[in-house]
Amino acid sequence: MSFSFRLVTEPRALGPRAGVITTPHGTIETPVFMPVGTQATVKAMSPVELEEVGAQIILANTYHLYLRPGHELIARAGGLHRFMSWNRPILTDSGGFQVYSLGDIREITEDGVRFRSHIDGSYHVFTPERVIEIENALGADIAMCFDECVAYPSDRSYVERSVRRTTRWAKRCKAAHGRKDQALFGIVQGGVYPDLRKQSALDLAELDFPGYGIGGLSVGEPKSVMYDVLEETVSLLPVDKPRYLMGVGSVDAILEGISRGIDMFDCVLATRIARHGSVMTSTGRIIVRDARFAEDFGPLDPECDCYVCRNFTRAYIRHLLKAGEILGYRLTTYHNLYYLIKLVRGARDAILSNRFFEYKQEILMRTAKRSDS
Predict the structure, then answer these.
(1) Which of 169, 184, 290, 356 is the most exposed place for a label (fewest CB within 10 A)?
(2) What is the mean pLDDT of the segment spanning 1-22?
């Protein structure tokens, strides 16, 4: 098995930490933010540009790649790395969240999930074994178990049944998983119920996965609730395994996650808001499409040294967005990913120099203020 994780800071159940993940396609310094490349592409970004912004690992999605172009085709192309020309690590989500989001066009049973494609309405079945077969064919460095993500709010009795099912599915995923060059992570569920989170975490820890995702958060619950549940959950997971908070990508949530011992993050937020003209800056988000930037010849963020901020003005980028030019979306996406990846890298540096909480406080104070510059 060519996957390993080691901490470079003192091992402890809670608190910020720095580590190194080793995979067949390279090492990853943690904590790390993973740009989302749902359909084997991070929207608007080329692989070369992803390297430029500092992406160490990207995420792709099993559900979407199964439906289009198909995992068999990707396997024939030589696997996901070769198919998309990305030679650094990849993580594939199992599709559990996507199936959850299908709502009334999916049916969950003990065996798996029967669902209708959002593309053409055709029927498909995902079982734990089928999902692992697809993820094995895709060949990512890290694959996620098939789980059930429950909505917020959800009835406690249903969440309890769901947690047990997710554990049973995790056992089936592990039994079906055959690639020695791919790490399979379990996913902790349990909604916002601390005792169910505890049950899920302990059950999955007993299965001894090489890493653990924390799913089912940031699905509508208040952030204060998310942080409480997160702290409760992290404290129960093995200290010597990477912890991945799934689908969380706002500045405050990332820093709060790191402060509680999270190692990995992913989210579509940075790229999605970029396509609507919203950009992350050192003093908070701005909407560069706004009329007030029509004659603003400064960079998106005066404190940013990315390619976009060194070469283009807010006025120019606003013009591109208003005109519907593709370059505008590419530039805002590039900047947002650079900003978020640099933020997390800065958090790692601060952890190593024993000043993370000062770093966190400074960032949160500055980004809480809306920038008018």
Answers:
(1) 290
(2) 94
CA angle 270, 274, 275 (to 5 degrees): 125
Report in angstroms the alpha-carbon separations of 309 from 85, 296, 317, 332, 338: 27, 13, 10, 10, 11
Cα–Cα distance, 11 to 320 (Å, whole number): 48
State how far the Cα of 327 lies from the Cα of 11, in Å rounded to an integer.
45
Read off the tokens for 371: 């920038």
Cis peptide before 69 (omega within 30 of 0): yes
Pair 241, 209: CB distance under 8 Å: yes
Contact 197, 225 (CB under 8 A): no
What confidence score (pLDDT) does residue 95 get?
87
Q: CA-to-CA distance for 226 and 41, rounded, in angstroms?
A: 29
Which residues are known to be catalytic? 93, 266
Q: How far is CA 323 from CA 270, 289, 319, in A?
A: 21, 10, 6
Look at the alpha carbons of 285, 291, 292, 294 in this order and tell me if their dihedral is positive or negative.
Answer: positive
Instruction: State the pLDDT at residue 129.
Output: 98
Assigned token pair, 112: 């798996």
Alpha carbon distance 361, 123 (integer Å): 49
Beta partners for residue 26, in sequence order: 23
Per-residue confidence (pLDDT) for residue 104, from 0 to 100:
79
Radius of gyration of the chain measured on its C-alpha atoms? 20
- Under DSSP, is residue 226 helix (H, G, I), strand (E, B) or coil? helix
- Amino acid code (one letter) for 143: A
Give the count of beta carbons closer than 10 Å to the beta carbon of residue 366: 15
DSSP class of residue 36 equals: B
| Omega of the bond leading into 35 within 30 degrees of 0 (cis) | no
In the chain, the amino acid numbered 227 is: Y
Query: What average pLDDT does this structure show over 279-296?
Result: 98
| Confidence tier at 301 by pLDDT (50, 70, 90) | very high
